[in-house]
Amino acid sequence: MINIKVAKAYRTITFEASCFIAGVPTIGVVLQEKTRLYKIKHNTERSEYEYDISLPVRDWPHPARRLIIKEISDSTPYSIEIYSNGSKIGDKVGAEAALYVEKVLKRQCKYKLHNICSNIQPEEIAILKSLEGLTSLSDHNERKATIYTNSKVTLDFLRNNFIHSLLIVEIRNKVRQRMNQNWSIQFG
After folding, report:
1. The domain 63-187 belongs to what CATH superfamily?
2. Is pTM, for the whole model, over 0.70?
3. Residues 49-56: contacts with CB within 8 Å, 24+ apart?
4. Taking burial as the number of CB atoms within 10 A of a residue's CB, which of 39, 41, 43, 164 is the most buried?
């Protein structure tokens, strides 16, 4: 009855149609989603997909550990430059990153992803994998790096400390780890 009132529909409308018009998912759809996520989370059902769902509140970082994402400044020279790119065209999804030290290519990685990824996830994966590539440079003297990305949305997600999706939180954790090792990482 609430759906009918919200949708301002006649009482002869079907339940599914009233849910659709009111913008409320049917209880069957909600139960299927919850059941599937429970099975995936507790490893009772094998899935080839990785879901980028929000982390539970108990896994959120403490507000005092908020990360400030810095943008590059033109006057600062960077000895380590990382270029990341992720894209989705139709059912073709991929991510790639290139790591340059003193303008020399040191590492390049490419990933073919499943077509279930959103438009934003490939770029997030490229940034995450490029940050993992910094571990191979632990002996490098200069610890200033910049990551160039063409995704303004990903940068906005990283700056917004109220977004707690799995990939964004992992990127923040990697940046935080590098900063604890006296790295300076900026985005551009």
Report:
1. Ribonuclease H-like superfamily/Ribonuclease H (3.30.420.10)
2. no
3. 49/114, 49/116, 51/166, 52/118, 52/121, 52/124, 52/165, 52/166, 52/167, 53/165, 53/166, 54/164, 54/165, 54/166, 55/164, 55/165, 55/166, 55/169
4. 164
